[in-house]
Amino acid sequence: MELPFITPLVGKIVWLAGVIGWFIIRYPHDRRARRTPKARRYVGIRELISLAISASGLGLIPAVYVFAGAPRFADYPFSIVAAILGTAIFAFALWLFHRTHTDLGRNWSVTLEVRNQHSLVTEGVYNRVRHPMYSAFWLWGVAQAALLPNWIAGLAGLVGFGTLFFLRVGNEERMMLETFGDEYRDYMKRTARIIPGIY
C-alpha cells in the first residue's frame, strides 16, 4: 500500500488528536463529578500509584516520544497499515469513551467512589459489558502501539493501563457488590468485564 502522505509524523498527530479528544470528552464530566456529593471513597496509595502509572503510559511517555523523539534506540520501522488501523481503533475508542460518560451521567468518577443516590447503570454500552470505559482505554493502548513505532512509547499505554486495570477492577467490583448486592451479582452473571461474550 503506497500512501506517501502517511508518515510517522501523521501517526504522532493522530495520537495527539486522540489525547485532545479524550480531554474534551472528559472535561465537563470531571467538572460535574467534583461537585457531586460522595457517599463513600475507596482511594488509597495503591489507587493513586496505579493511576499515576496509567497516566504515564498513556500520556507522559508517549508525549516525550511525540515531541522529542525519545527514546530513539527503541524505534522500529513505521507501518502505513498499522497507522491506518490505529487511527480507526482510536476513533472507536473515543466514541466508546464518550458513550460511557453519557450513559453513566452523575455516577461517573475518576477514582473509586460511590455517589449519593448512586444508581447501577446497565443500559446503553453497559448492557453487555460491565466496564466499557476500561474497554475504551484498552483500545487506546492498542491504537497507541499501532500509531507510534517505538517499543517503549508505543507499548507504554498497554503496560500502564494494564497495571491500573488489574490492580483496580477487583476492588471496583467488590465496591459495587457492597453497594448493590444481588442486583450487581445478577448483572455480573449476564455480562462480561470488557469484551462481550469473552472476558
Overview of this structure, please?
The chain has 199 residues and is mainly α. It has one domain: Four Helix Bundle (Hemerythrin (Met), subunit A). It is 66% helix and 4% strand. The chain is built from six helices and two strands; from the N terminus they run H-E-H-H-E-H-H-H. The chain has helices at residues 8-35, 45-68, 80-104, 132-147, 151-180, 182-189, and strands at residues 38-41, 113-115. It has a two-stranded antiparallel ribbon. Helix 3 (80-104) packs antiparallel against helix 4, helix 4 runs antiparallel to helix 5 (151-180) and helix 5 crosses helix 6 (182-189). The radius of gyration is 18 Å and the shape is elongated. The two termini are 34 Å apart.
List keywords for this structure.
elongated; two-stranded antiparallel sheet; about 200 residues; about 65% helix; mainly alpha; 2 strands; 6 helices; Four Helix Bundle (Hemerythrin (Met), subunit A)
